[in-house]
Amino acid sequence: MNFLNILTQLAEVDPDVLDRLNPRRAVFSSLGTVAKRSAMAATPVLLASMFQKAYAGTNAGDPVEIFNYALTLELLESDFYKKMQASPFFATASAADQAAINQIAKHEASHVSLLTTVVKGIGGTPAAGVTFKTTTFATLTSFAKQLEIAQLLEDTGVRAYKGRATDLQGIADVNIPGVGTINPLESALRIHSVEARHAAHIRTMRMQTAWISGSGDLDGADNYKGATPESNVTQAGFNLTTAGIITPGVTYTAADVAASFDEILTKPETLALATPLIGA
Amino acid sequence: MSSNQISDLQQEPQVDKPLYAPIKRRSFFMYAGATAGATALVLAGCKKDDNNNPAPAGSVSLGNGNLSVLQYAYSLEQLEAAFYAQVVKTPATDFAAIELKYFTQVAAHEAIHRDFFKAAIVNVAKGTPIMDLTPDFSSIDFTKRASVLGAAKSFEDLGVAAYNGAGKLITAGAGGDAYLTLAGKIVSVEARHAAYIRDLIMPGSFAADDQVDKDSGLDMSMTPVAVITAAQKYIKQTIDASQVGK
Questions:
Q1: H or E stretch including A10?
Q2: Tell me, what's the ipTM?
Q3: Domains of chain A by start residue, with CATH
Q4: What would the pLDDT profile of A202-226 be if each residue is shown by its tens digit?
Q5: Is A165:B167 a contact under the CB 8 Å cutoff?
Q6: Which residues of A touch B207 (CB under 8 A)?
C-alpha cells in the first residue's frame, strides 16, 4: 500500500485533503491512541480509521469501544434492577415505588438492547454477561438499601456518559440495521438524560433533592468525587460563587452553583467505581 | 412581570450605578423598564442601526456556528430563569412549603445557567450575547400551582430535548469540545428538574412513556427550529434559530 500515492490521488478529487489531515484537526494527535489499539501500524484498517476521522473533522474516539463502555454500565444497571425485582424485599415496597423501579428497569433493558444492536451495527462485538455481583447484592437486606445502590448507579451513569460525549463529537450518522439512521452522540445524550431522570426519581424516593445538592446522605460517597467532583463550583475558568462575578450585586451559594452543573467521570474513574460491583 | 425585562430581578441593583460601564457590551436593555427615567439613557445608548428596541417587537438572530449554539442555550436559559424568578417572586397560593423551597433552588440553578452562558459567550467564545429577551408569560397563572407546574414541565422537557438535539451541532475544536462538555453538565440538571416537576404533577411520571420512548428508552431530542417554535409564545421578540449550528 502506497500511502503517499493514496494522498496524491485523494488530493485530485479533494484539494483540501492535506488540510483535513492536518494535526490541527486532531487526526495525527489521535494516532497515538489508535496505534496502541492496533498492533499493526499503517494497515488498511488504520488508514480507514484515519480517513474517517479526517473527514469527520472530529475528536472521534473508537465508537465500538465507547458504546461497549456504555453497554457494560447498562448491563450492570439492568441486572441490578432485575435482581431488585426478584428480591423478596420488592414486595415490601409501595405500589408506586414498584412501578417506578419497573419503569426504570424497562428503560435499562431497552438501553442494553439498543446499544447491543448499535455495537453490532458498527461492526463490533457487543459486551455481554456483565452482572451485578450476587454476593454484594445479598448484603442489601432491605428495599431501602437497594435504593441506595440504585441512586449511586444512576448518578454515576450520568457522570460516565457525560465524560465520553466529546469522544463521540463529530462522528457521522450511521445506519444501524433494525434501528435506522442515528447520530451516535445524539443517541448517547438521549440515554444520558434518561439516566438523569432515573437518578432524580430515586433520589426523590429516598427523600433527597432530585439534584446533587451536596447535603444528601450519600453525596459524600466516592461516586460524587473524582478529578472534577460534584462539589465543583468553577466552570470554564469562572468560580461562580465569587460575588458579582457575572452579574454585579449577585452572589450565588456554593450549594446552588454545584447543583447547577453535574460533573463528568473519566473512564478510569468510572471503572474504579463499577468494576468491584461486577461479578457472578 | 411580563412587561419587564427578563433580567430585572437580578440586575435591578445596577440601575443606580454609573453608566460609564461598557454599555455596548452589556446590553443596555438591562436599564430599560427598570425606571421610567432610564428611557433617556436607553435612547442615548441606541445607535442608529440598532433594531432591538425596548418595544416588544423585534427579531433576534441566534447566528450560526458554535457561538450560535451557546446563544441558543442562552436564550432558553433566559426564558427559564425569568419564569422561575417570577414563580418565586409571586408563589402560587397552593404551593407546599417544600415545593417553594425547591423551586427557589431551581430558580437559582437557572439564573446561574443564564448568567454563566452570558459570561461564556463574552469571555470564552469572544462573542456578543443576544439581547435580554422580554418574556410573555400571559398564558401562565402564577397564582395557581397547577398552572405553574404545567408550564415548568413544558420548559424543562423542552430544555432537555433542546440540549439533546444541540449536542451534535457543536463542532469539535475551537472551543467546541468544552462547549459540548458544558452543555452535558447542564442538560442532566435540566433532566433532574424535569423529573422532579413531572413527579409533582403525577407521581411516577419522571420518565413516562410520553417523554421517554418505551421501546428504545431514549429521551426526546428536538432541532433548534422546533424548540424555538415551541418556546416562541413565551418570548416577545421573534427568535431566528434557522442557522443554529450551521
A1: helix A3-13
A2: 0.81
A3: 3-54 (no CATH), 63-225+263-277 (1.20.1260), 229-262 (no CATH)
A4: 999 999 999 999 999 999 999 999 9
A5: yes
A6: 103-104, 107, 194, 197-198, 201
